[in-house]
Protein: Na(+)/H(+) antiporter subunit B
Organism: Paenimyroides viscosum
Amino acid sequence: MERNRNKQKLDTTILRTSTNYLLPLLILFSVFLLMRGHYLPGGGFVGGLVASIAFVLHSFAYSPTQTLKMFSVKPFFLIPTGLMICFLSGMLPTLLGHPFMSVVWFADAVVVIGAFGSALIFDLGVYMVVIGVVLTILFSISEQV
């Protein structure tokens, strides 16, 4: 019985240690996927899934309540915020005389990102919605258990 507890503690220690290194790397990779999405495959959905996986891994290693403490607001509030950003990225072209949801590219390139347009703003909204939905589902299930 005692040997089983020590093995379980060792497994948790290994998982927690690896999570401490993997969480920032997965978040950085998700931002990379988000930024490259308006040029090549990737974007808000895939980047949001990778970021969600990072937080799910953290909740497995520690607990959902400790993962929730990492956020200043509840993940549920990312959903309407992301939807509003998506809507505003669609309205931006109409203010400039283009059809709704058409892509508008800005003249000046940003240093790290390169060409910047409304597609990246839309992807950012999708990124936030995906993280909000996945984490809201995860934390809702964990509260019921």
About this structure: The CA atoms of residues 96 and 104 lie 9 Å apart.
